């Protein structure tokens, strides 16, 4: 079968005249895909918050429609014009522009630049790589930064916010695996049992994690934190860090605002580290994937993951937009 004759299924998001967005499974052809060095048959993708935004017409993520979201893909090289990859190679592609303005992993084929492609590490299956996906990769980058800034388990408790979500749940599990004492922030739905099974020692409510007193500093409580929500919870965490505590910031599901002043930084040496998985350099990217395949590989991944098909994506996207999505949804495309 020639490449041009190959058709495949993809979730296609289209913009209606009334600015509503329709999501349908459509047949596409390889000729519809953008130019690139490597054609990949996608075996698994996964659902991230950014996909939910792209799938609902967020022009900050995706400028023009019709479009196939999916910032994550794991699969097998079907064709490559780049000598680094050959047909049959198992690979991972996450972030860069995949699924944003480049047709993404919610289609059975993608075509991408070779510079976006990460060889699948040994000891990781394609399915396992998408159990992590961008969420797990972001959790790994967050833990990487905590450790790189000197955080060790003996320094005290580490707080994870957005803990029942994709980034948070994997961060809880990695931190617990490497010996940290983890406290998890849990929101609307009680996920205490889930979070404790992942390795959280304690679970606190969003109310407890959000100080509204207006005080610039609070009693030191956390040695470090992985924050996935922003807003008051991140502000409260920074104000509650022990001296020289470190917090990573990757998300804004609660708010993009950060209502703090400089005191935690100048009186306690607080360290705030931004996490940008999209533009993560390739050497760090490969290193983080290697860690996810080895010493940070979490034992209880299946507890975090739900496997769905293209037909189930609509419901999962809605639940993610509503803030009620739990753990990781991986999408099987073969
Ligand atoms: N910077 C990067 O490179 C990068 C990469 C990946 C993701 N992200 C960002 O990280 C964030 C989390 O992504 P995700 O994939 O983990 O999303 P997710 O699966 O939807 O999880 C988010 C979690 O946040 C909590 N939450 C929801 N609404 C909240 C609110 N209003 N206030 C406080 N907590 C709330 C919920 O957990 P509880 O109910 O248990 O509290 C929810 O499970 C998103 O903003 C995403 O865009 C950034």
Inertia-based shape: globular
Bound molecules: NADP nicotinamide-adenine-dinucleotide phosphate
Q: If helices are DSSP runs of H or I spanning 4 or more residues, what is the number of helices?
A: 10
Order of helices and strands: EEEHEEEEHEHEHEHEHEHEHHEHE
Low-confidence residue ranges: 1-5
Q: How much of the sequence is in beta strands?
A: 25-35%
Separation of the first and last Cα atoms:
18 Å
Largest sheet: 7 strands, mixed
* Estimated radius of gyration: 20 Å
Structural class designation: alpha/beta
Detailed description of the structure:
By secondary structure, the chain is of the alpha/beta class. Strands 3, 4, 5, 6, 7, 14 and 15 form a seven-stranded mixed β-sheet that branches. Helix 2 crosses helix 3 and helix 2 crosses helix 8. The longest helix has 23 residues. It is globular, with a radius of gyration of 20 Å. The chain starts with 6 loop residues before the first strand and ends with a strand. The N terminus is likely disordered. The structure holds NADP nicotinamide-adenine-dinucleotide phosphate. NADP nicotinamide-adenine-dinucleotide phosphate binds next to helix 1, helix 2, helix 3 and strand 9. The site of NADP nicotinamide-adenine-dinucleotide phosphate has 34 residues, from helix 1, helix 2, helix 3 and strand 9.
